[in-house]
Amino acid sequence: MGSSGGLQLLLLAGGAVAVAALARRHNWPAPLLLVAAGLVVSPLLPEVPLDPELVLYVFLPPLLYSAALNSSYQRLRDVRRPVALLSVGLVLFTAVVAGLLVHLLLPSLPLALAFALGAIIAPPDAVAAVAVGRRLGLPRRTLTILVGESLFNDATALTLYRVAIGAATGGAISLWAGLGEFLLAALGGVAIGLALALACAWVLERLSDSMVETTVMLLIPFGAYLAGESLHASGVIAVVVVGLYLGHRMHLRGFSTRLVAGAVWKVVAFFLEAIVFALIGLQLVPVVRGITGYRPWEVALYAAVVLAAVIAARFAWVFALAPLIRAAPRTDVRQAVVLSWAGMRGVVSLAAAFAIPESVPARDRALLLFLTFTTVIGTLLIQGTTFPTLIRKLHVSTRKERYEDLLAEAAAQQAALEAGQAELDRLVAELGHEPDKIQKQVIDQLRENAWRRSLAAWERLGGGTGPDGAETPSTLYRRMRREMLKAERKVFVRLRDERRLDDEVLRQVMTQLDFEEAMLDR
Predict the structure, then answer these.
(1) What CA–CA distance (Å, rounded) separates 208 from 212?
(2) Residue 218: CB partners within 8 Å, gap ≥ 6?
(3) 399: how many CB neighbours lie within 10 A of its CB?
(4) Is the pTM of this model over 0.90?
(5) 227, 274 contact by CB (below 8 A)
(6) Contact 431/170 with Cβ under 8 angstroms?
(7) pLDDT averaged over consecutive 10-residue blocks of the chain (522 residues)?
(8) Cα(98)–Cα(308) distance, rounded to whole angstroms?
(9) CB burial class (10 A; 0-12, 13-18, 19+) of residue 446?
């Protein structure tokens, strides 16, 4: 790659981060703003090609792993039936519906290529939907279903895509061969994921350096994906299984590893998602330019029909199986509507379309790429922009879960306080004598800190104020301590500026103060 290519990538990354930062500042959905910005600037910039291998081998593994690492294995297990119905059943249903419809619209297009298009546009990417839903308070079960679907549906779609492309370039579609390949890919991915999860857990348990542990964790998703794909299994499932296993056991890592790894993965996910969604919009000119041999109204009609079919297929599937999917504890039409409308497509679909072999006729390949692009853009801009309004209009947001979480946390803090106090009493008894003045001060401070943490959890249920509207002790403590921290930081910086304190020492002190302030926010 020359200097011009490197500069182009740097400008792409910098521009994507700037747009994402603007979205965060104004509390807008970053994926939608990034796609829109890419569409606007695409005609004004040199082409930025979307490399399928870059997306599938560099962007996809860490994004999947980060999502799995931060998911709840227990909640996913509770919704395993709806997740399976959506990530496997709905993907197959959408692929068949879209494939048959495209074949009817374009009889000259081989049936295998029509099904390949169906597989390409079948899997939704829940990043935008989950971001909006979490901000607006969608029920946790609905969010868990969306996350679980997005974790596993790529495996179904990519396996079906490989079968269809293989048939298009080498022979007829074999239903049994395709089913066998899918089962082999899925079961192989699970087996590889579990084996790597156990091996990685064994390695991590023997490390005691948070930097080394976090670095190893950065390598895990790439290794899992490559292992799965190299053994003709599903790399996607392998990555997800490793992420879920290690995430469920994250409590076994040291506190410094959790702090460092949590911060690193947030940055990685933010950076990669910004680039990925910007890349989607930037494909406008390359995709449109490739269309030849069709009148504009024809391709516009095909695109509209395919987009409508994809959206309608999701509605039909969700409502037909609503009692089994159960987006809410009790089947609710409003919850089913929300789940149906959360079918935004993402970069994996575009990467699969760009990966269509060159042996496919150029005219057919360009049309499939165009229909994929319009489906991705259409679902993101139509469903994505209206999703917040839909949630508000249907009144499906719930604040009850927030109160229940606070109540559960307060009860857990109380139980932890009692356990901690009991352990402190045991340690005091082990002294074998009455604590002296210094020891008593330490013991009293430990008791006070534990009591304050427990009290803070109960106070959050009341918003930080007492019955008379005055600040509670914990709220007052946090407010005054924050002001003290500001004053302390100014002193350290002043001493550094006066060359009485080294920068390295300043960073160490500032880190300690930052951790304390983070605890105050907690």
Answers:
(1) 8
(2) 62, 264, 268
(3) 8
(4) no
(5) no
(6) no
(7) 69 92 90 92 85 91 91 85 93 95 92 93 86 78 89 90 84 66 88 96 90 94 95 92 91 81 91 93 89 87 96 94 65 84 91 90 91 94 91 76 61 71 81 77 78 65 53 71 82 84 75 78 61
(8) 10
(9) middle
